[in-house]
Amino acid sequence: MKLRNMIMSAAATVSMPLMAWNGSVLISTPNTSMLLHADEGSDLRFAYYGERIDESEIHQIHDAWDGLNKEAYPAFGKKIYEPSALQVVHADGNMTLDLEVKNVETTTESDATVTVVTLADKVYPFTVKLNYRAYNDIDLIESWATYSHNEKKDVVLQRFDSFQMPIRQNDVWISHLYGSWAAECAVATEQLMPGVKVISNIDGARNGHLSHPEVMISLDGKPQENSGRVYGAVLCWSGNFKLRFHTDFRDVHKFFIGMNDEASAYHLARGEVFETPRVALTYSNHGMGEVSRNYHRWAREKGNVYNGGKLHDVLLNSWEGVYYDVYEPKMDEMMRDFASIGGEMFVMDDGWFGDKYRRTDDRKALGDWVVDTQKLPNGIQGLINTATKYGLKFGIWIEPEALHIKSELYEKHPDWVLNVKGRDLNLGRGDGEVLLDLCNPEVQDFIYNMVDTLLTNYPGIAYIKWDANVELKNYGSSYLPADKQSHIYIDYHRGLADVLKRIRAAHPDVVMQACGGGGGRASYGVMPYFDEFWVSDNTDALQRIFMQWGTSYFYPSNAMAQHVSASPNHQTGRVVPLKFRFDVAMTGRLGMEMQPGTMSKEEREYASKTIAEYKQIRPVVQQGNLYRLVSPFDGKGLASLMYTDDRADRAVVFAYRMANFNNMLIPRLRLAGLDPDKTYEFHELSVPVGSKPSHIDGKRIKGAILMDTGFEVPFEREYSSRVYELKAVN
């Protein structure tokens, strides 16, 4: 996939006049509509977002919702006692705006229509453009704002939300993701109550740890998977964010989403255009599941996950197998053993670099991107040759945005790191890791040149694991002037995006994983440049069920890197059967993170058979439609999900027993997403060596029965699991 969907200006557009404006602006996808009211000379009003309507029904919305139209993008000034999406300080100290509609126009793209509503202040030469991209083939609307002015001096932006939406008060609930390192993407579900609910992140460098910049909003009470009206909102930004719900005793919840304004006042120069990140919005009256499927299609088909339509290889990452001991003989042994069970890619993780300071642990050498020839006497090319010998592709780990103060790079360029003048550095991982100053174009060039040189010198590198292990700890830039230090949180991520765009233009075919000390880079701010992300540094299969479940709310399976690791698990110490570990990892991009050579003969035989079976179901799992059946968060001691292809001719069902109690009730498993009129034949996969498939293997059952009544899953004990492929038969 090319970059046209990654760089929004790349899409060819054709100007055309807005038809039948007449004060109403109707923005529609195949099944949804958003209605704005835009009288020239008045403020912009938000009237409706829901099931698709046509032009003839606009007056019916106004008749049914008389008096409910609310300001679509409130700016601080007219109603200073109400929350605002935009707040500025003019050069003369005036802090108010009074915006009125000046113009509405549309352009068409190959797969979407873009509507732009231009607002202008009634006194100051300050302009706001609200943009809405409605896709013709997916129920997604992207919205963002741009600001510009012709005032004599800078205007200071103090708040700059991308989007605001009033939501009618009722029994409204929200679902969002939260967590920490090794426990990412838990699901929080809560009712909106009077007061202010804020979901935010101030990590500075990554925004997938702690809270996430996405939310589902259920309008009909506690959220359901397959029923009820649900909004989805996703902020496509890699930096700090803030989502706000303001609920008082009036008729609406006011929902705001955008970049976090904390310590981020932005000095907007005359003639400069400030663009906020996109917000991806969707609506469903079929519950959270359809919202997720809308996001998955949008991610894969519209460039919001790089190469989203591509199938990903089964890989082995060296980290938990050897950690920093990436010596050449060990790499050879791991590649040989992995190739023998059907592996396709080998990735060498941290520990391969350093000269004056050797990378034998995390306390030195980061930033010195030269091969440690004591570990790898034949260098990177030698490893590529070994991988080729075994029929594998080769990948490598880097952490380009940071350095360790015990490095040659820091000795040469101490001014390249983010630092506060006159203060000691706050140090991160390994008592010495700090971020490079990506606000600085010279630093951006260094990072780009490092990655470009690596990939140019070694064209056999097919995969990069791009890590980011430290938050932004030092809020100071040697590059930015004194009056623009508050730009750091924004300019860092603009600089990162610029580097990634250049790398993708030069090396479009290299697979890249976004790792952020685990799941810290699971973000649509970076995914237009990355093929996948690392869900978590925690590879424990039981906890991964929960983390992968939450991640699936907004992210497609082919972007989720999921690895089989050793038992006892290195993070939790849990002992889990190899089958259970494989069955959990197979719901996304399957990989391994262990020493294949330590497996028994029986385990190696099982792994070889199961990897081969995964390759057969890979198109359905990585590109199919997800249906979440039984949530691990429901406390029933089991979890289940499934994928179908678009024609509902094939499906893959995963089921896990997570607890074992005497007289424990295990309900029948009711499927979803099948064709009720088709009959499906069961084929059990991932069967251990020496075991027989369960009773349902080979049985043929109609889709209507499987979805209405369901079938019995023959779980045996705790950490028991089953995987079934279903194929439609005549």
CATH topology of the domain at 8-301: Beta-galactosidase, Chain A, domain 5
Overall morphology: globular
List segments where confidence is low: pLDDT < 50 over at least 5 consecutive residues.
1-20
Radius of gyration (CA) equals: 26 Å
Q: Major β-sheet, in short? A: 11 strands, antiparallel
Tell me which oligomeric state these chains represent: single chain
The second-level CATH architecture of the domain at 8-301 is Distorted Sandwich
Count the DSSP helices: 13
| Helix share bin | 10-25%
Strand tally is: 37
The proportion of strand residues reads 25-35%
Question: Pairing-aware structural class of the strands and helices?
Answer: alpha+beta
- The overall pLDDT, averaged over residues, is 95
Q: Say which CATH homologous superfamily of the domain at 8-301 is assigned.
A: alpha-galactosidase from lactobacil brevis
For the record, what CATH class of the domain at 8-301 applies? Answer: Mainly Beta
